[in-house]
Structures are given as structure tokens and as C-alpha cells.
Design goal:
mainly alpha, single chain, globular, three-stranded antiparallel β-sheet, 45% helix, 18 helices
Length: 420
Amino acid sequence: MNKSTNRGQFRPAPWMQEGRIAGGFAFIDSAALANVWRSYERNDLKLVDVRSWLALHEMMARRRAATERRRPTYSDLELARLTGTPEARRASSSRRRLIHCGSIEWSESTVRFRRREGEVIGGRARIPVPRRVLRHLARQGTAADVATVIGHAARCLYYQRDAKQLRSGGACTASWVAQQFGVGERSVHRSRQRLIELGWLRPVEDGRQGGRLGARFVIDLAWRRPDRGHETAAQREGNDADSAAPTIHHEPSLRIQRPELDAGVSTKPILRNVVPADLSDPRRLEALFEEAGKAGLVSRTEAGKLSFFAAAERAKRCGAENPCGFFAAMVRRGLWRHIAGVDEDRARKQIAAAYAPLDEGPRRNQRQPWKGMEGSPARVAPGADADSVGIGYNRGFPSGDRSGTVFSELKKGWARSSVG
């Protein structure tokens, strides 16, 4: 007996959205995402490399309609524009690191993403991600932002092949995103709140407080990225001593937040884990400058070093809530124009302190400076005691030095001959 059933048909809930997404979308292969993300966790890749990897998806989506008569071409200049880097050579360096780690295959006419077999992120083979938010992540996304966007897209966006449209709506927990991507759960909560404020993500107000599957969310299919990101009008006008500080107090530092790193100050300062001690210690700041120079975030010159140290001073002066995130955002975005003259004056003192010798005590076979010249008598009065004569001379030798002992023996004979 054959019974008709509607088991294969899914009826969307009233709070879900269906339709075409504004600006289009791009599929991200989950195995390829796992390949590049694990390399990033091993410190083989930098955050700018992950953003470049996302920008390549946008570049491929633009050339999807190319025919045989119109051969697609890929350039580092376009990659630099999508990631917001000021020079094409930095985008070229990021591309070479992706090739070296086995994340992509690059040619002038073809880009292929290499997969990591046997591992997926998000529990799906392909994850649809809106192109508008993809460009937003490629330009100014942090590690937690990338994890939050892709994690919620994996749980809340579904492509209907028959209707050729997307269905938006699903449940997602911050703990699940943190476990999949290895980021801090608190960072996911902050990134989710920013996405809600931007209007890309909308929580469903149905009285449900979460549970095993988490709270319900809907991704806005008609979302448009705000112009110029989070920059204010005062930031776009220019830099002077009285200009407003960049509104980036809540910008997380350049790192994936991990409990073992948050326990205390690491022995070696790194840009992915900027701590308050790095901004106060000139030697730790010097190590961060060397790392930033190798990454192409700052020029490895005296002027670049002054700007780097001045950015740390401005972060301590203006970023009262989160100076580490303030400093990290200035370095990553290259906001050197916001540095004031007072910041550079303090930075010069920090640079001078970085190259000052450490107080390690007297070295072996090192001649000690003479400290008793002011107390040395120019001429000995008749009848003066020998011990009073040598007060100024003994002061110039450290306690326990043999040279001082020898001199104390010789001075008595010199004093007697002078008096006699």
C-alpha cells in the first residue's frame, strides 16, 4: 500500500525569511576553510592572510559569469583593495604565504582552494556566505568576527536548489562557534552583538531564552554594509592635536583569545596577544615593532618606529577602556594620522629607554668612575690627621675593592710627607 507523504518537504516557520539575497552570495568549502584556519591556529598564517583568503572568494564570485572569450585575470592590486592594505606588495606577501602553506593554488587566470580532507568546520560541506558581509570581513574583520559570521551562516542560511533562493533562520550558540573555531566564547558574544548593531543579524523575539540548540536568529537578506565601517567624521577630516580619538575602544587585539594566554603576561610579546605590559615596557614594545615590521604593518625605519611607539602612547592616553585593542586597531588599520605631537614626545622617551643599558652592576675588569673629586682637599693644612685627609679619596672606590685598600695605605705616607 503506497501512502503519499510530505516528509521531504520543509515548511519554514513564520519568523524565517526566504528569497534572493541582495548582492549575491558565495559558497565557502568547509574542508578548505578548515585547511586555512588550522594553519592560522599554528601561526603559519596571519590574520591578514585569512582576510585575503576570504577576499579571493569575492574575486572569484566577480568572475563567475566570465566566458571563454573573456579570460579572467587575478591581480594583487585588486586583492589589496579588498583587504584595505595600502600597498600591493603586502597583498602579494599574503598571497605567497597562502601558497606556501598549501591553502590556495594561484595563477593569473585561476585560483583554487585546497581542501583538508577528513575535517570540516560547521558540520556542512558548503556554507553560503553573503558577499556583502564577505567584503566587510575581508577589510576589517577580526578572528572572532570571521568565526561568528561563518558559524551563524552555517546554522542560519540554507540554499534551496530547486527554488534557487536562500532561507534565513536558525539557532546557534556561542559555545558551539567557539569550539568549532577555537576562539573565546566571550569574543563570539561581542562579535555577535556588533553584528546585531550593524543589522546583519537579528534575534528572534519569541520568548525563547536558548537551550541546547541556542537562541534563534535571522540573517537579513537585504543587508547593506555601512559606509567607511566604524570611522567617525572627525577621523576622516585629518589629524591634529585636538582631533577626536578613533572610536575603536572595543576593538579586540590581534589574537585568538585562549585561556592559557589570558592567564598572565607571556614570556615573549606577540601581536596576536597584546597585553597592557607590552605598552608600558619599551623593550617588549620594541619586540612588537620588529614583528609588525616583518608582517608589513609598519615601515622598518626610524620614522616607522616613532609612529609605532607613539601609537602605544596614544592608546594609553585615549583608550581608557581597552588600550590594547585601541593599539591593535591603530596598527592593523594604519591609523597613524591620529597621532598627536604629545604622543611623539612621549614615544621618543620610550625609544631612548629601550636602548638604555640595563642596571646589571659593575662588570668584571671594568674601571669604576671617580666619585670623590668634590670631597678631595686641594692642599693639606699643617697638623691635619691622615684619616681626614683621605676622606675624599676613599669615596671614589667601591667598598671591598683592592685598589681602594692599596690607596688607603699609600695616602698615609703621602700625607706625612706633605705635613712635614
